[in-house]
Specification:
Blueprint: H1 4-11, H2 18-39, H3 48-58, H4 71-96, H5 99-103, H6 107-132, H7 138-148, H8 153-181, H9 189-220
Length: 221
């Protein structure tokens, strides 16, 4: 039975704060957020990277804030939410085309859509689907963009599963590994979150630099 205190905590949750989400909804909340962030355009603002990392960290029991999660159910919830969300986003894109994005007035979402389309054009379907997982906002809009632009369903499914598992399980296990090796590591959560965001952009930056070098080489020839 839900107690009044627990119900009040859920109603007062800050959806932009990973710890607040985990305290209110636990492991189930991770799956829901993963689904919303990767499958629904309204979820583009949700803290996917930080939520996964923080949840993994809290599985170690090293937190001094009394919140503990189970690693096994967390990994399942994160993976299922991330994979199901991406597939739903793709199917919505195939049915609605670009209408969903066209109706949005969010500048951030429109910029993400542009970057997603550029990824698909520059790196091809497979690589773009994997890389998008590691870029906030882009991972939300690329899935419906892929559907709208006619990316083959088999190609999309195979690579979104590969990228989704690496992203969701990798960040979760990364948080767990760090929490297991450093006592009270959650005291340093803010700088760690900033580091995770930077690291999540490395694959995309590496691809951009590689593409530029390839372009320069072709021009010199």
């Amino acid at each position: 039975m839900t107690t009044p205190t627990h119900l009040a905590a859920q109603l007062a949750v800050n959806v932009l704060d990973a710890h607040s989400l985990l305290a209110a909804f636990g492991v189930l909340g991770v799956g829901v957020v993963m689904f919303a962030e990767t499958g629904l355009l309204i979820g583009f603002f949700l803290p996917g990277d930080t939520l996964l990392f923080t949840a993994g960290l809290l599985c170690t029991g090293s937190s001094d804030q009394g919140l503990h999660l189970s690693l096994g159910p967390l990994l399942v919830s994160a993976a299922v939410g991330a994979l199901a969300g991406a597939q739903v986003g793709y199917l919505l894109g195939r049915k609605a085309g670009g209408a969903l994005l066209a109706r949005s007035r969010s500048k951030r979402l429109q910029e993400g859509a542009q970057r997603a389309e550029e990824l698909l054009e520059r790196y091809g379907h497979a690589k773009a689907v994997v890389l998008a997982r590691f870029v906030p906002v882009v991972r939300t809009v690329l899935n419906p963009m892929a559907g709208a632009l006619g990316v083959p369903v088999r190609t999309f499914t195979v690579w979104q599963v590969a990228g989704g598992l690496v992203w969701s399980l990798g960040l979760t296990l990364g948080g767990y590994a760090l929490g297991s090796s450093i006592p009270n590591v959650d005291r340093y959560l803010l700088p760690l979150v900033a580091l995770i965001v930077v690291l999540s952009l490395i694959p995309l930056l590496a691809e951009v630099l590689r593409a530029r070098r390839a372009t320069r080489t072709q021009e010199e020839r």
